[in-house]
Amino acid sequence: MYELAVHAEFCAAHAIVVGGVRERMHGHNWRVTARVEGSELDADGLLCDFHTVEGVLAGILEPWRNGNLNEMSPFDRLNPTAENVARVIGEALAEGLDEGLKPHAWVSSVSVTEGPGCVATYRRAKGA
Length: 128
Hints:
Layout: E1 2-14, E2 17-18, E3 21-22, E4 26-38, H1 50-61, E5 67-68, H2 82-101, E6 105-115, E7 118-123
Parallel strand pairs: 1-5
Antiparallel strand pairs: 1-4, 2-3, 4-6, 6-7
Helix pairs in contact: 1-2
């Protein structure tokens, strides 16, 4: 089994709702780790080109940079928790990459760190 990880960072604010109460708006330097895994390498000896993952991930994050997540799709209707941010990134990354990675690899997980020691991870099954 092989796994590669690509890291990215973006700054954005959010105010999540916990127990029906919206917290104060605050910002984070969000750190994202996207993982691709598979059991075989392609003809070039790669699981996936790092630059491909970096490019798709950058396109997902760019609209959120230096913004208020609560005002941006899909978080204008979805609580912008770290868990939801990880899932939205994971699903968008899979949509952008999985077809090109088949059948040997897939986007397996995305972790989002909103502060030191605070990490939320969204895991995907092969072919999910």
